[in-house]
């Protein structure tokens, strides 16, 4: 038993010594990136899938749990594979050119995005839309920072909020099919289901009455 413990400690020391080797840093960063992508993807998707599934999806409890597990696995796998691909390509480019330049990040991410997130499915669609909104904010701030557009004299956020809500509700009312399915479900719950009730049970307690009254 003691021999087994000694072997484990020796193995742990060897692993820790390997992790301190600078020559392996790029490869080890790729592996840890894969790990962090998998963990982060699961942390982000699991609670979201749990809420959305039990709020809007029908089916048995087992089917709902299966749906949550599948969505969590898909998000976790895709993010892990993307980080692995991105960091691997970044390291390869840096090694080939002898230094890291900004274009390396763009090219590596483009290739990773094409390979990992190129399939048009609900999980990837949500991730891309999440990123797109942040990109637009980021590019706007960068344009002001670089002097390409003047610094607004007043906070433009109220106008942005008005335009975003005005546009999305117009789309929902008259072109619903253009919106992403989970957004359709959320807005149907908020703006259409609130128009229908039969008695106090589905006015205050439940959203929809389940009996055949």
Features:
single chain; 213 residues; mainly alpha; 2 domains; flat
Nutshell version of this structure?
With 213 residues, the chain is mainly α.
> How many structural domains?
2
- The number of helical elements comes to 8
Average the pLDDT over all residues and give the rounded result: 89
Strand coverage percent: under 5%
Unreliable segments of 5+ consecutive residues: none
Order of helices and strands: HHHHHHHH
Q: Please give the share of residues in helix.
A: over 70%
DSSP, total strands:
0
Q: What Rg is obtained from the alpha carbons, in whole angstroms?
A: 24 Å
Structural class: mainly alpha
InterPro entries: Pmp4
Pfam family, one: Tim17
Protein name: PXMP4 protein
What this model shows, in words?
With 213 residues, this protein is mainly α. The chain has 2 domains: 16-118, no CATH class; 152-200, no CATH class. The protein contains 8 helices and no strands. The longest helix has 37 residues, at 61-97. The mean pLDDT is 89. It holds the Pfam family Tim17. This is PXMP4 protein.
